[in-house]
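Good morning,

Attaching, inline, the backbone tokens for the sequence recovery test we're adding to the shared suite. The designed sequence is right after.
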């Protein structure tokens, strides 16, 4: 299937359809391309050998209208850098949870790189909600569909950036005792266990990608310890705005408001900027009022920040 066909399916798929179903309805019946062989006359032998093996141990992400989900534990703690090239080792402690972040050669994975996590989590949770079988922590998806879902451009530079993001995710190491699915253990892992490009198009762009999530994250997904994000999350340009949205979504939830001191918000965000610069950024965010789903009120005299659901 070429990219123009994928774009056509993306635009005309019905809610709830998988790629296979949309392809069959929109393209396969037209004749030039077909996903199924013609029927074989009775008594004749098919020219195709039978399928002798089940699908591999991976999950194919092909749900077009999956709700955007994020792992609740990672929303609480600053596992991702807010600027590219951050190579500083950091240790965070909150109550009984300890997190040590160890960047790779390309720096710690950024909060924009986390979109790979969010995309995979969203597909897995939606598949579980629909009762699909074959769920696995190894997720196979098309680069183009990932970029469309996460509101990225689909030019050559975007494919290159995606490859760099996968490298940072696999190189960045986390040592933590965060509890997931009621289980607390001290362990170290990469933000993704592994990744590989399955196939490339003629111009050498990655087309299909396979990502293996860490077991720690997969346990959380299987237990459905996730929260739904506003789709406009992917429109937030600034890393700090994304991080503040995560925190407001995690803590405000269905409450009428969430109030926190600026100093504590600064620590929770994982920002490496000074408190003065952080204050300026929060004030600007409250003035522009563009945080999806939430309004921010910044009380400058008391250095307090209050979030209200819209």
């Amino acid at each position: 299937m070429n990219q123009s066909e994928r774009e056509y399916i993306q635009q005309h798929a019905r809610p709830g359809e998988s790629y296979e179903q949309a392809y069959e309805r929109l393209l396969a019946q037209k004749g030039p391309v077909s996903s199924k062989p013609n029927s074989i006359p009775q008594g004749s032998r098919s020219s195709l050998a039978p399928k002798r093996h089940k699908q591999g141990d991976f999950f194919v992400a092909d749900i077009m209208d999956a709700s955007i989900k994020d792992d609740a534990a990672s929303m609480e703690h600053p596992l991702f850098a807010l600027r590219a090239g951050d190579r500083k080792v950091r240790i965070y402690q909150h109550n009984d949870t300890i997190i040590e972040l160890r960047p790779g050669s390309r720096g710690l994975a950024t909060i924009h790189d986390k979109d790979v996590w969010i995309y995979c989590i969203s597909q897995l949770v939606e598949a579980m909600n629909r009762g699909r079988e074959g769920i696995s922590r190894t997720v196979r998806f098309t680069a183009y569909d990932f970029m469309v879902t996460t509101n990225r451009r689909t030019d050559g530079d975007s494919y290159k950036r995606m490859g760099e993001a996968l490298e940072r995710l696999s190189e960045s190491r986390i040592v933590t005792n965060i509890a997931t699915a009621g289980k607390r253990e001290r362990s170290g892992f990469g933000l993704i266990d592994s990744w590989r490009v399955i196939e490339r198009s003629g111009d050498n762009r990655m087309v299909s990608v396979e990502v293996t999530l860490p077991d720690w994250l997969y346990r959380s997904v299987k237990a459905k310890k996730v929260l739904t994000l506003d789709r406009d999350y992917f429109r937030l340009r600034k890393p700090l705005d994304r991080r503040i949205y995560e925190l407001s979504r995690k803590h405000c939830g269905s409450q009428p408001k969430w109030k926190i001191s600026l100093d504590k918000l600064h620590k929770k965000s994982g920002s490496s900027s000074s408190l003065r610069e952080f204050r300026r950024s929060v004030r600007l965010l409250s003035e522009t009022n563009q945080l999806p789903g939430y309004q921010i009120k910044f009380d400058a005299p008391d250095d307090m920040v209050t979030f209200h659901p819209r």
